[in-house]
Specification:
alpha/beta; two-stranded antiparallel sheet; single chain; binds zinc ion; 6 strands; 4-stranded mixed sheet; about 50% helix; 15 helices
C-alpha cells in the first residue's frame, strides 16, 4: 500500500488499544497485537522482535505484512488466546493461503488446526479440494477421509471431474486418488459376484429372488446361478439378475453406499422393480425383498471398500 492510503483498524480482538505492535495488511487494515503472543506462536516474529528497534520507543511499531486482511484475520485469530469462535474460510483457496502464511511465519501449532477446520468446513461439498490441500499440507488422515468421500463422485478421473485446487496438487497425489477410487470400484463390484456372505438363515433361504416358482416357468429364467449364503448355487429370478448385474456396474463407477441407496443413482433398483411386474408372484413382494437384500449388500460393500487403502 502507498503512504497516502487510508488505514482502518481490524475488528475484535485485534482492536485492543493496549497493543504494543501493529501488523498492517496489504489492504491497509491495522491489526493491534502483542509482541509476546506473536513471539510465542511464531519463531519468525520472535526473531524479528529480538532485533534492536531503531524507532522511538514511544511509538507502536508497524510491520507491513504481505497478506491481505482476509488472510491475516483467520491466521491471527487461530493463534490468539481466548479468541472464541473458529474462523470461517470463504473458500478452499483462502484456507490454502492461510496455511501458506502459517508455514511462512512458522506457526506450527496452528497448521493442524487449519486442517481440522478445512475438513470440517469443506469435506461434504468439496472432497477433492480438501484432498488436494491435505496432500500439499501433509495431512494424511484428512487426505484419506477426503479420498473416501470422493468415492461418491461417479467415474472420477474422467475429464469432467476438474476441481478447485487441482492446479496445485502433484501428479503422484492425484494418481493415488484415482488408483484408490478404481480399486474401491473393483472391490465393490466384486461383492455381487457371489452372495456367499449372506447369512445362512431360513429367511434368506426362502427369499423370493431365488425361490419364485412362477418365475421358474418363465422363458427368461435360468440364466444366472449364484452362490447364496451356504446353500450352494441357486438360480435367480430375471429381475434380480438384472438388479445384481446393473448395480455391480454402478458400483464400479461410484463405489459407495449412496449408489445403492439413492434411487436417482440406483437406476438398477428401479428397473428391477419394474421388471418384477412381469411375474404375478414377484410383483408385490419384490420391493420388500430387494430392500432386505440391499441392507446386507450395502453392509458388505462397505466392508469391501474399507479394506482398500489410499497408498501413502
Ligand atoms: Zn417371480
Amino acid at each position: 500500500m502507498s503512504e497516502t492510503q487510508e488505514t482502518s483498524t481490524a475488528r475484535a480482538p485485534f482492536n485492543n488499544p493496549d497493543h504494543d505492535i501493529v501488523l498492517r495488511s496489504t489492504d491497509g487494515v491495522d491489526f493491534h497485537h502483542f509482541k509476546l503472543i506473536l513471539s510465542l506462536v511464531s519463531p519468525m516474529f520472535d526473531g524479528m522482535f529480538t532485533l534492536p528497534q531503531s524507532k522511538s520507543e514511544l511509538a507502536v511499531p508497524v510491520i507491513l505484512v504481505p497478506e491481505p486482511s482476509t488472510i491475516l484475520y483467520p491466521l491471527l485469530l487461530l493463534s490468539y488466546p481466548s479468541a472464541g469462535a473458529d474462523p470461517i474460510f470463504n473458500n478452499i483457496d483462502d484456507a490454502s493461503a492461510v496455511l501458506e502464511a502459517a508455514r511462512k511465519y512458522q506457526m506450527d501449532a496452528i497448521i493442524y488446526r487449519i486442517g481440522d477446520l478445512v475438513a470440517a468446513q469443506f469435506l461434504p461439498a468439496h472432497p477433492l479440494g480438501v484432498y488436494a490441500v491435505s496432500c500439499l499440507a501433509g495431512w494424511e488422515h484428512h487426505a484419506r477421509t477426503a479420498a473416501a468421500r470422493s468415492l461418491e463422485i461417479k467415474s472420477l478421473g474422467r475429464p469432467s471431474s476438474e476441481f478447485a485446487g487441482m492446479g496445485a496438487i502433484g501428479a503422484v497425489d492425484y494418481h493415488r486418488l484415482l488408483k484408490y477410487h478404481y480399486e474401491c470400484g473393483v472391490a465393490a463390484q466384486a461383492v455381487g459376484e457371489s452372495l456367499e456372505w449372506l447369512p445362512s438363515t431360513p429367511y434368506i433361504k426362502r427369499m423370493q429372488m431365488w425361490q419364485c416358482v412362477a418365475c421358474r416357468r418363465g422363458p427368461a429364467f435360468g440364466r444366472l446361478a449364484i452362490q447364496i449364503a451356504s446353500f450352494g448355487k441357486l438360480t435367480v429370478t430375471p429381475w434380480f439378475e438384472k438388479y445384481l448385474l446393473a448395480s455391480r456396474k454402478e458400483l464400479a463407477n461410484r463405489p459407495c453406499e449412496l449408489t445403492l441407496w439413492e434411487s436417482a443413482e440406483s437406476a438398477s433398483y428401479d428397473r428391477a422393480i419394474v421388471k418384477a411386474r412381469d411375474c404375478l408372484a414377484c410383483q408385490f413382494v419384490a420391493h420388500h425383498e430387494l430392500n432386505t437384500f440391499r441392507t446386507f449388500y450395502i453392509n458388505e460393500v462397505k466392508k469391501a471398500i474399507a479394506k482398500v487403502n489410499l497408498a501413502s
